Amino acid sequence: MSKERTFSIIKPDGVSRNLIGKIIARFESEGLFVVGAKMKQLSRHEAEGFYAVHSTRPFYAELVNSMCSGPVLLMVLEGENAILKNREIMGATNPADALDNTLRKLYALSIGENTVHGSDAPDTAQNEIAWFFAASELANNQ
Ligand code: CMP
Fold it and tell me: For ligand 1, atom 13, which residue shows the shortest CA distance?
């Protein structure tokens, strides 16, 4: 087991439905610590850059529009195997495929408005954290 960090977003559909507390409580109950957090209205430039890997996909414009439709909560989560643990807590990208009691099964409206984002691997976690957080914005006391 190793302690690691991952990046998490509560998307506009989660923030607007007042789900922040429930989602963070779930992370905390499963041993993940919030070591960085900020609420932000993403600009198109930020959303396009963050999801650049999907820029040729047919859903890209819809994804960017959705991510800019309201504020998001950006977080860095830390814990043992945080990347995999967060992915298990979130469930499959498409809520129709997500296991019972995962965040996306419980809360997602659709594959586009799927309430939470989480990094899928160590290199993406590092890049995604750096996209939105300076080292000075992250706690070091866990
Ligand atoms: P996320 O984990 O934020 O990573 C990329 C996002 O693209 C994904 O969650 C979905 O919200 C969105 N996405 C992936 N596939 C589709 C699709 N087929 N149609 C619409 N949105 C999608």
Answer: 112
Indicate whether residue 67 lines ligand 1 (CB < 6 A): no
Q: What is the DSSP string of 19-46?
A: -HHHHHHHHHHTT-EEEEEEEE---HHH
**Secondary structure element (H or E) that encloses residue 87, with its range:** helix 82-90
124 ligand 1 Cβ < 6 A: no
Q: Which residues of 80-108 are buried (b: 16+ CB within 10 A; e: fewer)?
A: ebbbebbbebbbbbebeebeeebbbbbbb
pTM attached to this predicted model: 0.96
The tens digit of pLDDT for each residue in 96-135 reads 999 999 999 999 999 999 999 999 999 999 999 999 999 9
132 by DSSP, 3-state: which? helix
Q: Whose CA is nearest to atom 4 of ligand 1?
A: 117
With a 6 Å cutoff on the Cβ, whether 117 touches ligand 1 is yes
